User: Which sequence fits this backbone?
């Protein structure tokens, strides 16, 4: 995928580097603790919403007046608000109450991906008295759980399926993009070979030819022992028109659009796609996808998850609804699958004023996850240099990268700020653990010297490999892209003609017995020992831009 480009003027004169130093260890960060999920002044709290056997059991606490002495539990679709859904259970009102009702999975009334709320009667009308809450253990009904293939963080975005190259590099992981609009079919199109799929009482069709390409890649990854991360993008096609959010249907053009969590047809279609993909790629003849990323850089509103709305609260809320659908549908098939959201490196600065800060988006996302039922979501982040064509991973420009949480950008030099931030109690998963953090895109240009690229990759990989919370280091990309090179971004391990760059052998050595030898070479390029820089969190910065120092 093409990254957004920074618009910056490169100064011709060299500027002397300045250095500052900071030492730290992995742990919780102090200061800004993000948003704490609180009820919106409602008197009843849904404490749990769990699948038990073929039923759903909901426990609530608190108290609210009721004209008939009853509590009513509504099941809403994600696009519904308040007491507009279906009453699935009722019970006597009290300080502690329990609802039990059928899950009804694989039926038209399936409750798997619905949200629930408590209401009482007042003057003949229903009044909402609790916040919404989702089922938080969809894995309880998983029937195709596959053992995870976790065996190393070294990954790449491949050009093709040449296993000899990736085995030579020692690759453990692959990342790939799946476009929803390409795999669905308009039922009226009789000229397309289709794969039928019935879900929740409705028939859906998938494009056999498009799926064959994904099938082949997933199979190839499984056969060659590469763990696979699949990023789901919502592109515009005629067949997938109902998948596009109503606020994303203007003339704006980008690779990814917000998913339709506003209308029934789109919502049900999303559920079917999530279930279909999970069933198809959870073991068996088609192979396995261990990690699913829902959208790409979703805070980058105008570029990767487009909605015409500039309202952060609305945009995050709509994304959370889509995320819940994919999370519950995927985990209900493969309990061991991980489901990731995705943010970019623009922590406290926007290169595009139409986008949201990644920190703000992450905070609000976590707020809704806690408020509506904590689940084991995971975090995908792209900590590129700032700007993208800056060649020095170990010494970023001081106006863009700092060692405090007010840093404009999160790059590999200060990646520990993000992982420390995720150590806060309010961000922990349901087991009280720090969530897996995947670097699903990372890369460095060779436009200003292959030695700088090789050293940057070595430094960045060392930062990732020694951080206990980072589970993937996906190098972007195998071979240069001509379009990106127009902006001085040549991030491949290979040139356009396929010849290897200096960085090829440096990346190949990472994670092997040759690692320290190549770290020593990279340290000579940097002018400081990489292991010491990483272990001590030594922070080096420079003022402005220069090509030689």
Assistant:
């Amino acid at each position: 995928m093409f990254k957004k480009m920074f618009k910056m003027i490169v100064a011709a004169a060299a500027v002397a580097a300045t250095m500052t130093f900071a030492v730290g260890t992995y742990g919780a960060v102090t200061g800004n603790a993000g948003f704490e999920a609180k009820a919106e002044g409602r008197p009843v709290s849904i404490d749990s919403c769990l699948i038990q056997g073929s039923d759903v059991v909901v426990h609530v606490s608190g108290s609210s007046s009721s004209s008939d002495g009853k509590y009513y539990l509504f099941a809403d679709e994600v696009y519904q608000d308040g007491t507009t859904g279906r009453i699935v259970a009722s019970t006597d009102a009290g300080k502690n109450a329990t609802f039990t009702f059928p899950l009804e999975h694989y039926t038209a009334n399936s409750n798997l991906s619905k949200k629930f709320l408590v209401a009482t009667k007042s003057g003949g009308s229903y009044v909402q008295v609790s916040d919404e809450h989702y089922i938080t253990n969809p894995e309880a009904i998983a029937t195709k759980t596959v053992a995870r293939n976790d065996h190393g963080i070294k990954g790449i975005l491949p050009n093709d399926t040449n296993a000899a190259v990736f085995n030579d590099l020692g690759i453990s992981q692959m990342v790939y993009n799946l476009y929803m609009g390409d795999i669905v079919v308009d039922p009226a199109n009789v000229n397309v070979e289709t794969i039928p799929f019935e879900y929740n009482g409705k028939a859906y069709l998938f494009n056999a030819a498009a799926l064959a390409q994904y099938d082949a890649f997933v199979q190839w990854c499984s056969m060659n022992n590469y763990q696979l991360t699949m990023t789901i993008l919502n592109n515009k096609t005629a067949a997938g028109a109902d998948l596009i959010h109503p606020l994303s249907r203007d003339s704006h053009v980008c690779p990814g659009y917000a998913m339709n969590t506003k209308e029934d047809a789109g919502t049900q279609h999303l559920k079917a796609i999530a279930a279909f993909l999970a069933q198809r790629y959870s073991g068996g003849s088609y192979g396995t996808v261990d990690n699913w990323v829902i959208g790409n850089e979703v805070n980058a509103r105008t570029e990767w998850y487009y909605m015409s709305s500039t309202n952060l609260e609305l945009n995050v809320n709509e994304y959370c609804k889509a995320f819940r659908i994919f999370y519950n549908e995927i985990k209900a098939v493969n309990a061991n699958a991980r489901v990731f959201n995705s943010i970019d490196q623009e922590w406290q600065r926007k290169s595009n004023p139409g986008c949201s800060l990644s920190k703000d988006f992450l905070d609000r996302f976590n707020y809704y996850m806690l408020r509506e039922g904590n689940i084991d979501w995971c975090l995908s982040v792209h900590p590129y240099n700032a700007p993208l064509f800056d060649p020095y991973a170990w010494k970023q420009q001081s106006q863009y990268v700092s060692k405090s949480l007010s840093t404009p950008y999160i790059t590999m030099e200060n990646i520990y700020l993000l992982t420390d931030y995720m150590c806060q109690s309010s961000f922990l998963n349901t087991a009280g653990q720090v969530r897996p953090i995947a670097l699903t895109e990372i890369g460095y240009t060779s436009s200003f010297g292959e030695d700088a690229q090789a050293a940057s990759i070595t430094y960045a990989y060392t930062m990732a490999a020694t951080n206990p919370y980072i589970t993937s280091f996906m190098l972007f990309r195998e071979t240069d892209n001509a379009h990106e090179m127009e902006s001085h971004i040549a991030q491949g391990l290979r040139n356009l003609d396929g010849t290897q760059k200096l960085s090829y052998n440096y990346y190949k050595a990472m994670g092997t017995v040759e690692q320290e030898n190549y770290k020593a070479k990279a340290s000579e390029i940097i002018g400081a020992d990489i292991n010491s820089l990483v272990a001590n969190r030594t922070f080096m910065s420079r003022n402005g831009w220069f090509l030689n120092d």
